[in-house]
Fold:
Amino acid sequence: MTTDAFARNSDNFCYRHPDRVSFVLCQRCLRTICPECQTQAAVGVICPECMRDQQKAQTTAQKKAERRARPVRAVTLSDARPYATYGIILATAVVYLLQLLIPGRFVESWLAFNSLFVIPGSEAAFQPWRLITVLFVHGSFWHIALNMLALWMIGRSLEPLLGHGRFVTLYLLSGLGGSVAVALLAPGVWVVGASGAIFGLFGALLVIGRHIGANITSIAIIIAINFALPFVFALASSIGRGSFADALASIQISWQAHLGGFLVGALVGFIFARTRTAARRTAQIWLLVGTGLVLLALLVIPVVLYR
Structure:
């Protein structure tokens, strides 16, 4: 689908606010609705018109029961806040606080990632949860501060567009993609941080932005600069001092996680963009599940090559 075709299709925009792109549909009439127009109901979110029709059709007994129970409240602009983004930032901050309070790097020893923990039969125990928990562990204050700042900046725009559940799915799959890339390209290397997931958000924002006709030039430039930084630092450090590979390893920035997270994030963003209608919701779920399974299946490669 071209950008012009997307812009001409009114189904891609809130029917009450045609200037707002949304990936969320009313569960009754299946029209596109932005966060301001969403009302939480038992079946999911519904539009204001369907909410009024539902209230008109209620019997006296139903109205009395509703008054006794907690009333259904319309979603306002304040409810469109990126709560999942805030939740991820809070969870990451709590883990970092535990890192500071618990001595002996106990938290890192249980949550940081190394490919040895996903290779059955290696000298390390099989601990697959590290593929995800690595996202919540950071090496320094500036490490977590920069990652969470990027998450906050992107999440404010991307989460209201996708919805809370899709945003969390994107974040976790991107983080998983970063860990798998580390296992494939940097076996035996310890890594910490949410950079893979952050680059996944960048990738999804780039793809979705292109799909809805937004100007993605600035996003592409930011991604290119951030991805190139480790190599620039390594090149500058290696001049007259040693090999480029040694310098790249010494700067302790996992470009492998950046690459894996970005590719998976772009793929998930493409899935969201192409399966946003209610008719394709089942396909969307299966494509996301399939993406996760393929990433896990790729872990067979280091099992074969590096055991």
